[in-house]
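Chain particulars:
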Amino acid sequence: MFYREPSHDPRRRARRALPVIVVAAAAFATGAIAGAGHGASARDRLALQFTRSWAEGQYARMYLQIDAASRRATPPATFASDYERALRTATATSVSVSGRPRDAGALVRVPVSVRTRVFGALALQFELRIASQRGV
């Protein structure tokens, strides 16, 4: 028949396994290189920083992150009081970032958890329009 007794020669097994090992190593290297380039975008990082500042009540830090035209149109005190008023109106007792930013075309959405006295715990999306550096 066509049956061959398996070889017990370790060198022969190693030679037969070498192509599989090479392909596996190449696949791993390709995945590592491709994965390394998929970090958070600058838009996502900015949105996350802004949202974390909001959750911490750091309105001055938030104000520094808005574009120049918005800063000219809105004084810092007005900017801060608008955000504070919105949280008071919602009866918010705590705010935290609950996920990673997601690019949504013109917007970046950051998942947040807002605990309120009236509505309980809410899972919401903090939406930001990120302006490009060009034309600012």
